[in-house]
Amino acid sequence: MRRAAVVGMGQTKHVSHRHDVNMAGLVREAAQRALADAQLTFDDIDAVVIGTAPDLFEGVAFPERWFAGALGAYGKPILRIHTMGSVGGSTAISAFYHVASGLFDRVLAVGFEKQSEAQTTWVFSAGSGGRSFSTGAGGAFAPVCKFYMDRWKVPPEMGPRVAVKDRNNALRNPYAHWNKGTVTIEDVMASPMLWDPFRRLESCPTSDGAAAMIFAGEEIAEKIHRKPVWVKAASAMTEAITMSTGMRTVPPAEVACAKQAYADAGIGDPRKDLQMAEIYTPFSWLEFIHYEALGLADEGQGWRLLDEGVTEFDGAFPIDPSGGVIATNPIGAAGMLRMLEPALQVRGDAEGGHQVPDVRQAMGHAFGGSINYHAIMIFSDEKP
Amino acid sequence: MRRVAVVAVAQTTLERRKPDLLPAQLVYGVCKEVVAKAGIARSEIDFTAAGSADYLEGRPFSFGQALRYEGAWPPINETHLEMDGAWAAYYAWLRILTGKYDTALITAWNKSSEASLHHVLNIALDPFYESAIGVDPISICAMQARAYMQRSGVTSEHLAKVAVKNRGNAKRNANAQIKGDYTVEQVLASPMLADPLHLMDCPPITDGAAAIILAAEGKAEQLCKNPAWITGCYHATDLGIMGARDLAELPAARTAAEKAYAMAGVSDPLRELDVAEISEPFTHHELMLYEAFRFCQPNEGGKLLDSGATQAGGELAVNPSGGCLAADPIMCRGLIRLGEAALQIMGEAGGHQVPDAKKALAHCATGHGLQSNMVWILEGQ
Fold first, then answer.
1. Could you give the CA distance from residue B374 to residue A86 in angstroms, rounded to a whole number?
2. Interchain pair B371, A243: CB under 8 A
3. Which residue of A has its CA nearest to B24?
4. Of A61, A102, A253, the CB nearest to B97
């Protein structure tokens, strides 16, 4: 397989309403920042891959057809991925495989959401769980997290502590949506309960934003950027959500996805071979399920990693130093940011004080649906 | 470039309404059939790609419902595209080209009968300037047909002849929806939906699903007696703003064909190709595509049709299956063209088999007025 690296990255400042741009303007802004980072122009791009969550969020069907021109795709291939919340990750992975195939040299991946265009909780409620349960996204994940808390007898403040970690990390990230100052456990506990066990501050916001990454083939990556970030693994796994496999918290597809990624990257112990990770935690308690599924902790023990401070910004294995999805949630971009941020960390370019020292190898993870779509990439400063 | 082939093809019968199955359930039959045809265990397939559209199903994340029918347990390496299944096949092909994967299952489905295509495809336009004026595929393609007729001198009779040819071909395709011995007079006498397009110049509304399996050299020969080898493929998009396009031209279709021809070493397509399955939802598209694909000179699409060269027994049979005018499930429109072209190479197209087909073109198109276009070249041994 041809080696490929990330040679350009860009994102918008994520906010609840971008009144100044339409969807086309939003994606173009992120794409132009990635191009500027790579010192390339749209003419240098061979193909475009775009990812966004359901079209019903913005009310335009197949919006990439409308703004193909805004992404410089005229006369070029454009591919549209949709794998629920993991879509930004799957989109970056698709762009990587475009280059890895040998057919394309420079491929632009863009993920976006403009949640202000619609009432997304209403749209979620019409989703895969059924047409009229009115659950929203939080309602879909609450039972799993309740089960996790009860099964492993986890102290009730551990969920709020995820929110404290992520929201305070976000203050170091100039692009993060959350910017309302330091948050304490008391603040989180005092915020209204939305979907028990998720309080308002434990839940992701609705954001407008876009992210873009440019992947290039081995021979040219080094000519494009002083420090290409190499892709060591790009893994995606999906499982059917209706299997009667009994109650469980660790999703088999996520376990399989991580196993494949670690095998591809030659990683034995992720806690030793990686220095940090960005994982997809839109609601607080999901964080611990991921720690366990990704092999960072044993089953039932995930919460202890945070309790012991391991995954805090200055811990031994920082997770979501950017603030993660709890702080910033333009859905189609949120999955891509989980890939873009660890790549930035490997390059040493995480702005505003959220750079983790000495990151040589890092992981990005995004999930979608009922925790049944997963995408993982592993980035390194070393060629695979 | 690694050699990759289509090794198995399945599709449902294509019908106006399939009231007995949910959209995702359409997937089960074709996935089961295509896996059985290849004689491969589901668990041995390395990658799965799916194509469908939320808006046609009236709910977000609709494709999650199809996973159980695709065989996503235990977990599989899978990606869903909000596109025609042909683009899912394209992504699967790229994955196999990397050398990391050897086999892929691709599926696509839609139940247009449960949606209003007029509304869903109207909101697939620029939301500020174009969607708001209420245009839809029929009205946009009518403007395109008029612009093309003006440029080329093609007449309404030429357009009608495309409908007669393709729906006549469809008589030999058991899966087709609209078929029969129609006449030019009947087409011209059918109601005018948007001048110059009559009802019979337009595609039907169709429910259906399709699936194919791709395999790399080494594996393909084990799974299929006569694999349809992919020797070229490219896709390109035109602009999505109708007002920014010259609707009388199809530059993206031309780019896709020229790049695919260059990869496959095709220089004189009319002579070298034996069969073409192309996406002509509206009659004028077929003539415009003759030109874009260099089957004829510019403005000579009507003349080529008149010559009989593109009839089922002609020099280059175009749409022996009946094409989109015979059945048009819009999310598997392209995947069905790819499957039909592969069946021709495999010698398994049944009643609409073109004798001794060795080299085939499949064309897939989505978007208003054929905005995005993909061309595959398939060859036998």
1. 26
2. no
3. A128
4. A102
The single-letter DSSP state of residue B55 is H
Q: Residues A29-48: what's their mean pLDDT?
A: 98
- pLDDT of A166-197, one tens digit each? 999 999 999 999 999 999 999 999 999 999 99
- Domain at B4-116+205-223, CATH from 3.40.50.300, 2.40.128.20, 3.40.47.10, 3.20.20.150: 3.40.47.10
The closest of A4, A353, A375 to A169, measured between CA atoms, is A353
Contacts of B3 in chain A (CB under 8 A): none
Whether B77 and A100 lie within 8 Å, measured CB to CB: no
**A228: preceding bond cis by omega (within 30 degrees):** no
Question: Strand A106-114 to strand A47-51: parallel, antiparallel, or no bridges (unpaired)?
Answer: parallel
Interface predicted TM-score of the whole assembly (ipTM), two decimals: 0.97
Q: Is A83 within 8 Å of B128 when comparing Cβ atoms?
A: no
Q: What single DSSP character describes residue A382?
A: S
Chain B environment of A55 (Cβ under 8 Å): 53-55, 82
Q: Which residues contact A125 (CB under 8 A, 6 or more apart)?
A: A132, A133, A134, A135, A136, A139
Nearest residue of A to residue B56, measured between CA atoms: A61
d(CA B227, CA B356): 14
* Alpha carbon of A65: minimum distance to chain B alpha carbons (Å): 5
List chain A residues with CB under 8 Å of B292.
none
Contacts of B97 in chain A (CB under 8 A): 101-103
| DSSP category for residue A251 | -
Q: The dihedral of CA B66, A286, A9, A33: what is its sign?
A: positive
Place of tokens 């083939």: A217
Which residues of B130-217 form beta strands (DSSP E)? 192-194, 197-198, 207-216
Asked if A90 contacts B149 with a C-beta cutoff of 8 angstroms, the reply is no
pLDDT in tens, B83-115: 999 999 999 999 999 999 999 999 999 999 999
Name the token pair of A156: 């009730």
Q: Which of B65, B80, B238 sits opposite A74 (nearest CB)?
A: B238
